[in-house]
């Protein structure tokens, strides 16, 4: 079949009302349109058997160019369902991008994927929607915000009332670190559009929590984090593993490949030791600096205003108690402590899991091989912002966190049916697995480097 290309394809798309038949494409043809190779720069994807040419659109995609591009040449039906609230409205704007449909003899997903698993997960998604598990409980999230604000005020009150001696200072530091950590989880909920049924309200409150309560860019976080969810632990597509190979050798496959190529940017065989003084100490301070750069680069003046109120508020409350030098040091200390907490909690679900290039697996398998859970308890739920249910969160990123425990048995059942491992572990075991996986991949790199 001679495929349509570029703008002409968009102009000659299906016009059923005028009696035209849709152009038909095979998965082989679609698989060539990844933005790489031949034909150069074309990007197509499939949603519900409809073929879309995003070559001219992907840079204008509201969710970010890299997110949508990561599915170029592939079936994007499941991520489309996962990420969008008002799918009808989105489809209306997508209609101009449609260039045809899959040929009648083509399956609804790539032949390399497990058709039964894909169908079963889509049935599960329909069940989840029917059970109302994507509907938020606003009172639950109000209580979360309230407890964050109370921790924030308590952190200041302890220093103001009891003075700045060691014990009050330590108590205040703990309270404010927890407040920042919990605010991070709430902004995560808002960024995933899981707090309100309206995209607009999620975005507005997200700016308040992320920029005013934390001093970071909400838009930067959303663009960055969406890439992670689209292709978790896929090298070159998931920015959360971009520290490979500059800082760490991650995953068995990539580590061996790095060693075979005789590349050594760090002493990776010691990475389980230097992990303590790299990522946990640097992540949030680096985020803070890059976030400000991003705001100025994108000219996000409203986010800049919110971010300035964070720093102004912090200085107004703590400068009279600690002085200029003290308040700057205190701000840095809180950033570093939150960074330690954030890194250990966020990485225990992913670093120990399978890391590789994108092999275009189905949505369910992609998420399950890249994520694991931490055993459920009230403390683990609270400490991790319910991200101890990382598997459920990745399968249904818009699901409000208070419903993860309800869908977990259904996910386990689907895993059992298809022989897919559902990993859940104690919290401390998860922390230990970070170091064990880094040690293992470092040793694999060294062996390949010396003997490969």
UniProtKB/TrEMBL annotation:
InterPro entries: Cyt_B5-like_heme/steroid-bd (IPR001199), Cyt_B5-like_heme/steroid_sf (IPR036400), FA_desaturase_dom (IPR005804), Fatty_acid_desaturase (IPR012171). This is Cytochrome b5 heme-binding domain-containing protein. It comes from Gopherus agassizii. Keywords: Fatty acid biosynthesis, Fatty acid metabolism, Lipid biosynthesis, Lipid metabolism, Membrane, Transmembrane, Transmembrane helix. It comes from the Eukaryota. Pfam families: Cyt-b5, FA_desaturase. GO terms for biological process: unsaturated fatty acid biosynthetic process. One of its GO terms (cellular component) is membrane. CDD domains: Delta6-FADS-like. Residues 22-103 form the Cytochrome b5 heme-binding domain. One of its GO terms (molecular function) is oxidoreductase activity, acting on paired donors, with oxidation of a pair of donors resulting in the reduction of molecular oxygen to two molecules of water. Pathway: Lipid metabolism; polyunsaturated fatty acid biosynthesis. The chain crosses the membrane at residues 139-160, 166-186, 274-296, 308-334.
């Amino acid at each position: 079949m001679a495929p349509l290309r570029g703008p002409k394809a968009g102009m000659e798309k299906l016009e059923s009302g005028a009696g035209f038949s849709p152009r038909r494409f095979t998965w082989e043809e679609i698989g060539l349109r990844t933005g790489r190779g031949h034909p150069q720069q074309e990007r197509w994807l499939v949603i519900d058997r409809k073929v879309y040419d995003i070559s001219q659109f992907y840079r204008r995609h509201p969710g970010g160019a890299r997110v949508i591009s990561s599915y170029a040449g592939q079936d994007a039906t499941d991520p489309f369902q996962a990420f969008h609230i008002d799918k009808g409205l989105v489809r209306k704007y997508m209609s101009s991008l449609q260039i045809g449909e899959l040929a009648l003899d083509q399956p609804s997903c790539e032949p390399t994927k497990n058709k039964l698993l894909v169908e079963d997960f889509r049935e599960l998604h329909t069940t989840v929607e029917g059970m109302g598990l994507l509907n938020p409980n606003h009172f639950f999230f109000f209580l979360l915000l309230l407890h964050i604000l109370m921790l924030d005020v308590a952190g200041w009150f302890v220093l103001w009332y009891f003075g700045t001696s060691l014990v009050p200072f330590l108590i205040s530091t703990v309270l404010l670190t927890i407040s920042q950590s919990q605010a991070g989880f709430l902004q995560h909920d808002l960024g995933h559009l899981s707090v309100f049924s309206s995209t607009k309200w999620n975005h507005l409150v997200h700016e308040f929590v992320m920029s005013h309560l934390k001093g970071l860019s909400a838009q930067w976080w959303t663009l960055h984090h969406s890439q992670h969810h689209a292709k978790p632990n896929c090298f070159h597509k998931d920015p959360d593993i971009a520290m490979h190979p500059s800082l760490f050798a991650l995953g068995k496959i990539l580590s061996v490949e790095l060693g075979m190529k005789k590349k050594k940017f760090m002493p990776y065989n010691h990475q389980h030791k230097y992990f303590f003084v790299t990522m946990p100490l640097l992540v949030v301070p680096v985020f803070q600096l890059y976030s400000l750069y991003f705001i100025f680069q994108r000219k996000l003046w409203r986010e800049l205003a919110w971010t300035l109120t964070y720093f102004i508020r912090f200085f107004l409350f703590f400068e009279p108690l600690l002085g200029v030098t003290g308040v700057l040091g205190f701000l840095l200390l809180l950033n570093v402590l939150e960074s330690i907490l954030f890194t250990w909690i966020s990485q225990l679900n992913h670093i120990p899991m399978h890391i590789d290039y994108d092999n275009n697996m189905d949505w369910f398998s992609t998420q399950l091989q890249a994520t694991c859970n931490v055993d459920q308890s009230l403390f683990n739920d609270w400490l991790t912002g319910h991200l101890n249910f990382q598997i459920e969160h990745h399968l249904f990123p818009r699901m409000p966190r208070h419903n993860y425990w309800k869908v977990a048995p259904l996910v386990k059942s689907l895993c059992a049916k298809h022989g897919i491992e559902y990993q859940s572990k104690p919290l401390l075991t998860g922390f230990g697995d970070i170091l064990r996986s880094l040690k293992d991949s470092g040793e694999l790199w060294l062996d390949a480097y010396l003997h490969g």
